[in-house]
Specification:
about 220 residues; mainly alpha; Arc Repressor Mutant, subunit A; two-stranded antiparallel sheet; elongated
């Protein structure tokens, strides 16, 4: 069995176990016993159970992006510790010199969570440093910073302001989706968005434009 197959087996095992127990009650021993693997194999691929949760998201998200987004717009991580450079995780779709369309990412993210709604409802409940919510913020904040820089298009904005915009919009997006995924009364994650599925990037574009106009007065 290849490395990717082993990772998939461990991820699928965790998902299956989560159908019968809360994620916090599932141990690495439970995962290796149910998968027929051993702890050495688990730790060869993942540092922790939380890292496995993060990987299952990355696998599912990559699958949705490859289905729903133009390959030329997909964004991949660079090689590094804790990264998965073969799995796309974001979309950067330019629709003008200083405009981006974030809707393919939003719709792919919703489709990812809908793919295993009950699993992600459990995975998105924790809010600690190693939680999926925290991972999503760490993963997408740098990508959103790059989006801000793309919208700026060589115009000046202090780096701490760029970081603030990225953290604010990513934090809002993660919290919005997490609460809707967890809410059993929510039957469609994006139904309420209607024509506003590009709200994040159109709002960024507007705020940056207004800031630049004030700066030039």
């Amino acid at each position: 069995m290849g490395s990717s197959d082993t990772m998939a087996l461990l991820g699928d095992t965790l998902i299956e176990l989560s159908e019968r127990a809360p994620l916090e009650k599932i141990s690495i021993s439970n995962i290796v016993d149910a998968s027929g693997k051993n702890r050495k194999t688990f730790y060869y691929h993942f540092d922790s159970k939380e890292a496995l949760v993060h990987w299952t998201f990355r696998r599912d998200m990559a699958s949705m992006l490859l289905q729903h987004a133009n390959p030329d717009t997909l964004v991949y991580e660079t090689q590094g510790a804790g990264t998965y450079p073969t799995l796309p995780y974001y979309v950067r779709k330019k629709i003008g010199v200083r405009s981006l369309d974030g809707s393919p990412f939003i719709l792919s993210l919703a489709a990812c969570f809908e793919l295993r709604r009950s699993y992600y409802a459990k995975a998105l409940r924790p809010v600690g440093a190693d939680s999926l919510r925290a991972y999503l913020k760490r993963l997408y904040t740098p990508a959103m910073e790059d989006d801000v820089l793309s919208i700026l298009s060589n115009r000046y904005l202090p780096r701490n302001n760029v970081r603030f915009l990225a953290e604010f919009y990513v934090g809002a997006l993660v919290s919005y989706f997490a609460e809707r995924v967890i809410d059993p009364s929510c039957t469609d994650l994006v139904e309420d968005m209607g024509p506003f599925d590009n709200l994040v990037h159109s709002s960024l574009e507007w705020e940056i434009k207004e800031q630049q106009l004030r700066r030039n007065l």
